Every structure is written in C-alpha cells, then in structure tokens.
C-alpha cells in the first residue's frame, strides 16, 4: 500500500458514523452566513456544531443557518452551550433531537461564566441520563484522565477535553493530560476549545487525538476563510506526523551529514 | 378562555392571543414558522413533529419554539 492510499484510508468513527475530516468547526461568531459557509467549505469539515435557540417570533422571515449550510450534506452536532445544569442541557438536547431527528449531540454543562469551565459533576449526571434516553453524547470535559474514564463508562461516545478555556485561543495548556486521556480512551478523543492558531491544532493531532473542534480561532481570524484552510492543513499535518512517528529528542546535536570521508 | 373564545398562551416568553380550537401546526402557520424547521415544547413536554397537526392549543399553554442557530 502506498502512502497516498494510507492517507485516504485514514478515517475515524464515532457512534458508528465514519468521517474523513478530523476537523469539526463551530458556526458561531461569524460576520454573516455567507462567510460562515465559505469557512466551513474551506475547512473541509464534515461536522459542524450548532446551538439550539428560540426562534424570533416577531420576525420569522430572517435568514437561517440551514439555508447556508445544508444539514443533508454536513452533519449538524447540536450543542448545549449556555447550559449550567444537567436538566437544562437534557431539555435542550431533547428539543435538538426533535428539530434535527438525530441522536448524536455535543454535551457541555458549564460551571461558571468567567472561565466556561465544565461542571464535571453535572456533566457526568447529564451523560448518564442522556445515554438512558438513547442519545449518543460527545462530551466536553476537563483535561482530566479520570473524569474522561468516568464519562466513557457512563456511555459518552467521544471525549472532548478542553485545551484551554472556550474562546481563549491560548493553545493546549497541558500536553501531558491530553496525552494521558488519549492513551486511556476506548472512544475518540477530540480537543475541544482553546485552539488559537494552526500550530495548536497540529499539536493536538500529534498527541494522537482523533480530531479537533474549534470555532473562535477561525471565526475571529482577520481572514476566517484563509484560517479555515490553515486549520485543515494543520490537522492533516499533525495527523500525518503522529502516524509517521516522530524522531527521538536528543539533548545535543547529531550531524546529518556523514563524518566519514571528511577532507 | 376569554368571552370571544380566543386563547391566551405564551410563546417563547411572550403573551399571545390565538383563535380557539387551533392545532399547534396551525399556530405555527399563524406565526409564520415552518413546522419542519422547528421543535416545539409545550408545558415542558416535547410535542413530536408527527403530532403537531393533531394536538390542540389550550388556554394557558406555555410554548418554547426553537431552531438551530450558529454556535460553537
């Protein structure tokens, strides 16, 4: 098998659905739907996250996300952004399931507005309840290998630890814990939140993550469509580097040209 | 229920008056909403899309009508 064929065969599967792109992008914070759709196209993403919100009853004719990003072609992953209790998150996802007709969802239960850090007690409780109701939750969580294990045991179909706080763009703060989560997980692991630029996405993939989820890093770039391309390339580069297996680090130099035959 | 037979309901937190005897699907039409693009919760219970045409709006009902918007 050639390297080219290897790359083509490099898919990942979550809850029985197989994807080629390892980049999931959000659909918030864009200037307009046109730019949002162009960025999704440039990112190559096959999954986008979406929020569930009240329709504007006083102006029902406004343009809608679904007019620009076709849910028949791109998998919509409804989130529970803004939910601070298990009950709120479950209620939101029941509505999402009715609106979309699918069970694959992104669960996030937040602890406080300042850091948007997940409340893991509520997150675990919500995961258990959702699984009982037939949902397949991909779960946003802290970068804690024990919490990740508990979520997996509760039925999470993917573990999505933060690299840094949501919207911060600080990059992955703890490479060690993300790697520990990857090594311990039997379900896909995706870094969700904290990516600021392309190298951060590459780092996540080099650690062996199955994918990366991001929103602000693309939406708040000066040129979001160009950054979407950069992220696509970074995720692919990081994945290939992981598969290739990096060289060992040394403390001192090692010449690349032969010493023999020196004049 | 008022003297003229109209119903008082709440839709996404706002009070509305609707004619009596209408179904939820008819209410959505009245509001200019496509039943295929929204999800409806009535008094904290999901109303399955397949039953929107059969379930009648009742006086005092509290509706949440949602759809997908951009988010991360």
Task: List descriptors.
heterodimer; A: 263 residues; alpha/beta; five-stranded parallel β-sheet; three-stranded parallel β-sheet; 10 helices; 39% helix; B: 72 residues; mainly beta; five-stranded mixed β-sheet; 5 strands; 11% helix
Please state the structural category of chain A. Answer: alpha/beta
Strand order of the largest sheet of chain B: 2-1-5-3-4
Q: Mind describing the biggest β-sheet of chain B?
A: 5 strands, mixed
Q: Given the C-alpha coordinates, what overall shape of chain A results? A: globular
Indicate the topology.
The complex is a heterodimer of chains A (263) and B (72).
Chain A: H1 3-8, E1 12-14, E2 17-19, E3 23-26, H2 33-43, E4 47-54, H3 65-68, E5 75-78, H4 86-100, E6 104-107, H5 120-132, E7 136-141, H6 145-154, E8 158-161, H7 175-184, E9 190-192, H8 198-206, E10 211-214, H9 216-219, H10 224-244
Parallel strand pairs in A: 3-4, 3-10, 4-5, 6-7, 7-8, 9-10
Antiparallel strand pairs in A: 1-2
Helix pairs in contact in A: 2-10, 4-5, 5-6, 6-7, 8-10
Chain B: E1 7-11, E2 14-18, H1 24-31, E3 39-42, E4 45-47, E5 62-70
Parallel strand pairs in B: 1-5
Antiparallel strand pairs in B: 1-2, 3-4, 3-5
Describe the structure.
The complex is a heterodimer of chains A (263) and B (72). Chain A has 263 residues and is an alpha/beta fold. Helices cover 39% and strands 16% of the residues of chain A. In chain A, helix 3 links the parallel strand 4 (47-54) and strand 5. With 72 residues, chain B is mainly beta. In chain B, strands 2-1-5-3-4 form a 5-stranded mixed beta sheet, with no helix packed on it. The longest helix of chain B has 8 residues, at 24-31. The chains are: A alpha/beta (263), B mainly beta (72).
């Amino acid at each position: 098998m050639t390297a080219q064929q290897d790359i083509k065969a490099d898919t990942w599967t979550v809850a029985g659905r197989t994807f080629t792109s390892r980049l999931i992008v959000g659909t918030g914070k864009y200037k307009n739907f046109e730019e949002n759709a162009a960025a999704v196209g440039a990112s190559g993403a096959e999954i986008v996250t979406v929020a569930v919100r009240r329709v504007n009853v006083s102006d029902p004719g406004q343009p809608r996300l679904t007019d620009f990003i076709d849910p028949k072609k791109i998998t919509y992953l409804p989130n529970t952004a803004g939910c601070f209790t298990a009950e709120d998150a479950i209620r939101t996802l029941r509505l999402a399931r009715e609106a979309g007709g699918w069970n694959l969802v992104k669960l996030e239960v937040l602890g406080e507005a300042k850091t948007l850090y997940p409340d893991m007690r509520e997150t675990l409780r919500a995961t258990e309840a959702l699984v009982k109701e037939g949902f397949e939750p991909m779960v946003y969580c802290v970068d804690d290998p024990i919490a990740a294990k508990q979520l997996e045991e509760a039925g999470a179909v993917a573990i999505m630890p933060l690299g840094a706080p949501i919207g911060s763009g600080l990059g992955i703060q703890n490479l060690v814990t993300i790697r520990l989560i990857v090594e311990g997980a039997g379900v896909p692991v995706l870094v969700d939140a904290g990516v600021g630029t392309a190298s951060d996405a590459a780092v996540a993939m080099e650690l062996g993550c199955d994918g990366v989820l991001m929103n602000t890093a693309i939406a708040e770039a000066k040129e979001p469509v160009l950054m979407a391309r950069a992220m696509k390339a970074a995720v692919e580069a990081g994945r290939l580097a992981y598969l290739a297996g990096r060289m060992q680090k040394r403390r001192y130099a090692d010449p690349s040209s032969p010493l023999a035959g020196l004049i | 229920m008022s003297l003229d037979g109209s119903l008082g309901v709440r839709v996404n937190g706002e009070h509305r008056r609707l004619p009596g005897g209408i179904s939820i699907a008819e209410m959505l039409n009245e509001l200019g909403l496509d039943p295929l693009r929204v999800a409806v919760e009535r008094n904290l219970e999901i109303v399955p899309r397949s039953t929107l045409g059969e379930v009648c709006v009742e006086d005092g009902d509290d509706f949440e009508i949602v759809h997908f918007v951009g988010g991360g």
